[in-house]
Amino acid sequence: MTLSQLPSDFYGMESQLTAEEQDALARLRAVMEPMRAIVDEHWHRDEFPMDVIAPIAATGVLGHSWEETQTFPGSAVYRGWAALEMARVDASLSTFVGVQNGLAAGSIGACGSPEQRAEWLPRLASAEVLGAFGLTEPLSGSDAARGLRTTARREGDEWVLDGAKRWIGNATFADIVIIWAKDVADGQVKGFIVPTTSPGLTRTKIERKIALRMVQNADIVLEGVRVPESLRLQRAESFRDTARVLRLTRAEVAWAAVGVMAGAYEAAVRYTGEREQFGQPIAGHQLVQDLLAKSLGAITACIALCVQVSRMQDEDRQDDAHSALAKAYTTARMREVVAWCREVCGGNGIVTDHDVARFFADAEALYSYEGTFQMNQLIVGRAITGRAAFA
Ligand code: FAD
């Protein structure tokens, strides 16, 4: 399958991928494109389209990060382009994949024992098992390390979990959720693979969102939930290990932010060719072209930044500050670009019929999840100055 150049990839940077990666991306694009037809309706209904899960899993993206489950050894740069491709169609779809592959499988891939990886990664990759990631709590978001209140108490071969989690994506339908909890014995954060059918675990959908309405976020309460030692992530010793998972997923959120910009930009370009004012398509007006050119400039710069941060991952030299800078910078540019794209659609830019308004609203969630703009700036600030302004 041939990969045609995206209108938003002005410098044709996708062509740097290997032929095998370009083929995989073309197949993913072919699967994702028809989903445009159903996302608006589901967004308004506040429902996740469960029928998309099987075709998405068939593309391999739910397991493409791990040796055990990847169909070919693609690079981090390829995986980034895949995140862009999905977000370009819809940010809720890319978020679903980000939670399943990046956060849930990512926790097991980065912090699980070989046996845990062998048991869970293939089942997550095929979507036989759906996963979620429970770090944020009602009283701790940015302060997730220090402020974590959920506790884990060891009793023989079992652990007893008590606490509450908030905002947990995919959690209303997930089969397992990775729960991060503080061991009462040593005060360190540990990770647990918790089946959502466990007695004492309840989940309640968060309603009335204005962004990523298709993503099913839940509040989770854990009351004396018993988990065997075999479900404790064997290589998660402290919050540093949780941060290892987030480092990788933040870089992919940066790519998804570029996808949101690309989706909004491509829809805006279409609109400006169709809408006429003063006797010609608005695409011919100078100030409209200025907004489109500024958008394309931001997208192009952000693609280049994302390619480099993923290359650093491929070369094993990406650290927390590198992915934090990419996440903060691209999501800030995304907010500007979706606003410019909304602007060129005039009044029609505030109804979702032309797609731009949905990208505009969804951008707000990407800006704040996986570390807010401020927290990612502070991680970069720590790297610049050697002083942590938030610990
Ligand atoms: P707060 O931490 O209360 O922050 C509020 C404001 O204060 C922000 O602007 C923040 O930047 C600012 N602030 C806080 N501390 C400082 C400081 N020291 N200096 C400067 N500014 C500061 N979590 C999960 O665990 N799993 C998920 O699957 C998940 N999915 C999500 C999906 C969506 C749609 C959303 C919205 C959130 C999701 N989250 C998830 C939670 C997300 O990661 C948190 O919302 C985020 O980390 C911010 O935490 P908070 O909302 O508690 O905001």
Automatic annotation (TrEMBL):
Cofactors required: FAD
Domain of life: Bacteria
Acyl-CoA dehydrogenase/oxidase N-terminal domain sequence ranges: 19-128
Domain Acyl-CoA dehydrogenase/oxidase C-terminal: 244-384
Keywords assigned by UniProt, alphabetized: FAD, Flavoprotein, Oxidoreductase
InterPro entries registered for this protein in UniProt: ACX4-like (IPR045008), Acyl-CoA_DH_CS (IPR006089), Acyl-CoA_Oxase/DH_mid-dom (IPR006091), Acyl-CoA_Oxase/DH_mid-dom_sf (IPR046373), AcylCo_DH-like_C (IPR036250), AcylCo_DH/oxidase_C (IPR009075), AcylCoA_DH/ox_N (IPR013786), AcylCoA_DH/ox_N_sf (IPR037069)
Gene3D superfamilies: Acyl-CoA dehydrogenase/oxidase, N-terminal domain, Butyryl-CoA Dehydrogenase, subunit A, domain 2, Butyryl-CoA Dehydrogenase, subunit A, domain 3
Domain Acyl-CoA oxidase/dehydrogenase middle: 132-225
PANTHER family given in the database record: ACYL-COA DEHYDROGENASE (PTHR43188:SF1), ACYL-COENZYME A OXIDASE (PTHR43188)
Protein family according to the UniProt entry: Belongs to the acyl-CoA dehydrogenase family.
Protein name: Acyl-CoA dehydrogenase family protein
